[in-house]
Amino acid sequence: MATRANSVPHPTLVQVDPFISAHEQRGIHNRWHPDIPAFATVKPGQVFNIECVDWTGAQIGNNDCSDDVKNVDLTKIHNLSGPIAVEGAEPGDCLVVDILDVRPFDKMPWGYTGIFELENGGGLFAREFNSRAAKAIWDFHGVYATSRHIPGVRFAGVSHPGLIGTAPSAELLATWNKREGELVAANPNAVPPVAFLPNATGAYVGQELPNDVREKIYREGARTVPGREHGGNCDIKNLSRGSRCYFPVFVKGANLSVGDLHFSQGDVKISFCGAIEMAGIITFSTSIIKGGVEKFALKQPIFLPSPVDPLYSAKLVFEGISVDVHGDGKQYDMDATVAYKQAALNAITYLMKLGYTREQAYLLLSAAPVESHVGAIVDSPNACVTLALPLGIFEHDILPKEEGLTKKNFGQCAIRSDGVV
Amino acid sequence: MATRANSVPHPTLVQVDPFISAHEQRGIHNRWHPDIPAFATVKPGQVFNIECVDWTGAQIGNNDCSDDVKNVDLTKIHNLSGPIAVEGAEPGDCLVVDILDVRPFDKMPWGYTGIFELENGGGLFAREFNSRAAKAIWDFHGVYATSRHIPGVRFAGVSHPGLIGTAPSAELLATWNKREGELVAANPNAVPPVAFLPNATGAYVGQELPNDVREKIYREGARTVPGREHGGNCDIKNLSRGSRCYFPVFVKGANLSVGDLHFSQGDVKISFCGAIEMAGIITFSTSIIKGGVEKFALKQPIFLPSPVDPLYSAKLVFEGISVDVHGDGKQYDMDATVAYKQAALNAITYLMKLGYTREQAYLLLSAAPVESHVGAIVDSPNACVTLALPLGIFEHDILPKEEGLTKKNFGQCAIRSDGVV
Amino acid sequence: MATRANSVPHPTLVQVDPFISAHEQRGIHNRWHPDIPAFATVKPGQVFNIECVDWTGAQIGNNDCSDDVKNVDLTKIHNLSGPIAVEGAEPGDCLVVDILDVRPFDKMPWGYTGIFELENGGGLFAREFNSRAAKAIWDFHGVYATSRHIPGVRFAGVSHPGLIGTAPSAELLATWNKREGELVAANPNAVPPVAFLPNATGAYVGQELPNDVREKIYREGARTVPGREHGGNCDIKNLSRGSRCYFPVFVKGANLSVGDLHFSQGDVKISFCGAIEMAGIITFSTSIIKGGVEKFALKQPIFLPSPVDPLYSAKLVFEGISVDVHGDGKQYDMDATVAYKQAALNAITYLMKLGYTREQAYLLLSAAPVESHVGAIVDSPNACVTLALPLGIFEHDILPKEEGLTKKNFGQCAIRSDGVV
Amino acid sequence: MATRANSVPHPTLVQVDPFISAHEQRGIHNRWHPDIPAFATVKPGQVFNIECVDWTGAQIGNNDCSDDVKNVDLTKIHNLSGPIAVEGAEPGDCLVVDILDVRPFDKMPWGYTGIFELENGGGLFAREFNSRAAKAIWDFHGVYATSRHIPGVRFAGVSHPGLIGTAPSAELLATWNKREGELVAANPNAVPPVAFLPNATGAYVGQELPNDVREKIYREGARTVPGREHGGNCDIKNLSRGSRCYFPVFVKGANLSVGDLHFSQGDVKISFCGAIEMAGIITFSTSIIKGGVEKFALKQPIFLPSPVDPLYSAKLVFEGISVDVHGDGKQYDMDATVAYKQAALNAITYLMKLGYTREQAYLLLSAAPVESHVGAIVDSPNACVTLALPLGIFEHDILPKEEGLTKKNFGQCAIRSDGVV
User: Fold this and answer.
1) Contact check, Cβ <8 Å, D314/B392
2) Does D65 lie at the interface with A, CB-CB under 8 angstroms?
3) Which of C228, C391, D310, D344 has a Cα-to-Cα distance from C22 of 20 to 30 A?
4) pTM of the prediction?
5) CB within 8 Å: B234 and A384
6) pLDDT in tens, B57-104
7) What number is the ipTM of this complex?
């Protein structure tokens, strides 16, 4: 019939199996390095798909026990698909990337959010809470997610890549390694560590390479944990399907890599494995603006958010000021991180009044489309940060009432087999 | 005719003249202290107006020179109207405050945004920029503001009180003074100071009081600069007309005070006198939830934002990571304040490519309905903060273009009479 | 002090008293005619205020009886303030009007919505319901309205002029009178009448004029009920404060008139006196685009909505199709008016399940920020129209529940002294 | 690895091939009738997929000629997948349907919008324009659509089923056939016809059935063109992925059918094949509320819109009043259909000033996320309807400018091989 003609699917340039270990698959790498060759090349304007395993490379299971989170091998993260070279891109150009779609594999309609152990990953409250492994499994029902581990909520995901970036130049990589090395050197005994330095253990590149090249990459390659000047692990929920990003180009071809897909995440990614982590498919098209780094003063990526985000307009908002770290009651000097922690703690305490456990609340704030705004960082000595909990994600009324809040029993999320939380 | 019957205006409980020095007027105080008596009392449910002078108490003029900003007397800020007691409120209760409206005086349809001197007020970039006084005057045209000092922008204000809070108890006040005193003691030579401690100079209470009471208030009263557990100078743009706030009550009657009205402010209040400062009228109603502090775990206010905010959905977003303070290139450990500064600097640099001066850009980010979100504070060592510039506030297209950005001449904002910027 | 200098309020070009009959006041007219001289003249770019009485000119009172609605004199509506001439405007130009603000008088913080008698005004359901006079008084609390006659709702107003337009030319006026006369001639006995033709009774112009001129205006002047090519009584809620309108100019000076201010109205203005009617102040500025009628093919006004509308994103939506007028069960041919009626009836029936009376529901749909969208008018024979009831305006949960809807007692709105509804 | 366990995809209950004629495939029917047996049965709460061919059943091709539209066989539309029975549903119940996702087949990333011939389908302007076949092919790039036939626009789709409904009872079906038959009888020579009556030609049911049953269905089955009390072809863009619908149940099992998927449609579906028609996959879950028809007074479906719609807040709005049908200049009596046509014509004329052809403009209004609101239907004799064109879908500035509009050359959409438009 008429519809068959000219029905050409968009090509899939990296194909992966979300059920197989990432290091056994082609097209997946887990370090940033200029010497990782392009795995595929596209022309500007072409629409293409990239498949991604989840950020751990299939280490976390759909079950009711968090031992897999406890024992996760963090030398193997994050698993990135690519790099994809764009014809004509040169250092100093701006690579325009349209994130056209992000979705889970049909055969894996679930994801997870995890609290990591203090000694293996940590998280914003790892020290305050002396965190032990916990997790929530989320089931995907089309645009919605629900969790048997956090009953009473249901929300539309604002899907996006947690991690996307262009390859660094050798100079930029050296800068990263130097400055992060200095930070670690200044905090030698921090638990969790203040930064993750290059580490050959667990590294892979997803391609056949000469031994010396591969070993150089393993030895020097920047870890994927932080976001940096090239993008990387920014965990910005607004880099969602429908958004347009402007990346600085540091190497010929730009060499774009992507991974760590999220079905949903709010502003408040506070557990180390915040967001609803998933494996899935991302669709891109690209273009190049010659000399864009200079034209737009691109020190880091800039972007246009998508028009398609979920609209949860009614919210309950919590405030935090830069006073008190783990009960010390101290005044901190316009420290937005402390203020943010306080706002999150205030929200967690409120959710516990409704019957959620501390772990459930911690996971929920990381996974749901929560917003966090910086109010002001100028009213010495207090920074003020807000955290807005959308009312529409709850199946029950959570508003303050004359008679107080009704405490329900929501059970508990998945915890360790030894019962320690 | 028929309409005359039952036409009863809402009462105005504090009446001020925006053209007269605040300390000469009744009902205006500028310190937080439990012993300041209620200036007026309302019943729960009553709708009432409160008039406010601008935060400086008429020190800043509608002119083209910033000398008044340079010489502003900061011992006299912020000027608060009140306190207003609510019948029946007791410590431990929750005071529900509906912010029903906020608007300028008809006779003073303008406001201002200021960059303060490094040595007199400072601001987020006071040290980096070695700030000298500058300002922008904004003209109000109904819901819109424009400025002859920052041409090419026009936006709807999201009006709100910069400063609103209940009176502290003696215990809470003592806690504030102790913790802030310790911070100052630890940073004795900071310029600008890291906190503003009690200071009898410039203090007033707007009422006749016995000398010993007044002097105690002057001696002990907390300064108004930071937001604290009672609300205060939170500078949260979402506390706008139409919002409902839940304040903890610390003294009998709650003793609500308000001031520092803003015609508009974004999340990014980065200049010390960010926001569009105005004198005006705020309309409230209140109710009481007995024992609300315990019921809702109220460590700080919580609130429901208004449904009436301006909707500028299309935005250009800048990112910042916690690297580099004033060019040091250093890696900071998940410091959201540094990340926020970087996002703001990236936006300022971009605006300068369009032709705005650094001062204009600094003021614009403080005054316009800009959004700043915390992305993630968990991806060690980089916190990631975004700053979203709404496209709809510009009268010209500011998007990245293939051909680069067009640099226009927007002149300069109001600067000092000696020309120093 | 510094603030006094250059504090110049926007001028008020038409000043009225909302408690005095409209025909006794200067600057108020109630017919459209090219020969009504400009009451005031402005320059392009100038910001100015216009005061307006309510549309009936003070005929309706703040009380609990609808007899004033029953007996309202409709020859005296709508009361328009103006006309305002804009220097330089010529026929064929486009008059750009910025609606900068709309607000009630401080001394009259209330408004009303009315169901009119079948024989005196009517309304969309006048015949189906055999309408008798009823009304709801709304109290304004800043941006919010509530009504003692319709308990359980509270919403932010999206204030706008129900009626705004430029003066018609003699030719355009003749066209109106001809086509409307033909419609009346074809439906001579309709109750309520299908159109209101020129009628000297009750007419006034708000200015001293030679008798012959005044009498010509009275004799020929178009009634104000319908919207027409010049704007007029379009009752578009989106012409709200913050919007920019482009009007065709038909006479020298454009001669803009405005009145019938609404504190709030949804898309669904179904009672003849739908909307929350108020007296108040509107703020404008204008500019001229020469030859704009041709440039933009202006057959009627076009406009840019305001960014400041209330955001009630969660809604319950009712559908209507073009079947059934007053129980006849008949199929109508893609008739959007019938479909709209059905959607409104479905919503009214639903509200009655919640305990509202039919009159309360009818008034509420007219006054609240309800949305009505045309779905499709192409699927013969059914047009499909939707009506969306915002959940956030109700103080209780109105969603469909497994256990059905809870019927509360909300009393009744204001009805006639003889008790007939 | 860990992810393999418990990875169970949602089942697909109807599987189709979008490249094969609908009548050759199982599970596709194109009439409404109570005797069509359920094709599959689900339990309440189950998540499942349904695949759908495009509404014509593969009659329209991805090419640059509209002859396929000219010759389309309308006896074969609309192709519906199902019916799906829900265990436990009985007449009088309410079937709650969650539309969890709607997306095109990966292998068919395109869709189309068509103008149909006056004599074969028609459309809102079929008579005014004497419509000849034309079409636009849209390419899907993730959430976005673009068309080589309408250059200069790109927008995010708000995907939804154009047609979804429960099976009618025998009584309801008889009512439909009676009332529509009477309308046709009263307009015997209308071109296009005012309604489509039962017609055995082209009918099919997608299942093996006894001859007498099948023939009864063919003879009596209601055509799919209009929306009716059971839902059906409502073409409501807000029934989008993420929405929850409440359908009345008329037969045991409810027997839900769905088809006519749209990648995008605005409120303004004015061409007979408005919307961007596509083949694809829809994901559902269901639940039952016993006795819901009575509980909620369900005369027609009601629904909760999705939180995930595209947000295009800046718009240019056109008005229409109920004057003039095809140039007759006549006054119509509060006829919203006429007002809607006028608003659409005003928008089409404006788009032609920008360089689009009349056919391109007609197709664009049908396909893009345009909004159309009913302003008021009470201001006799004019109904007022608005049409809002989102600025963000255009790649160029379409706002009114001092200097007028810039007319570009956008070519033409796909037209007939004989060149007639």
Assistant:
1) yes
2) no
3) C228
4) 0.96
5) yes
6) 999 999 999 999 999 999 999 999 999 999 999 999 999 999 999 999
7) 0.95
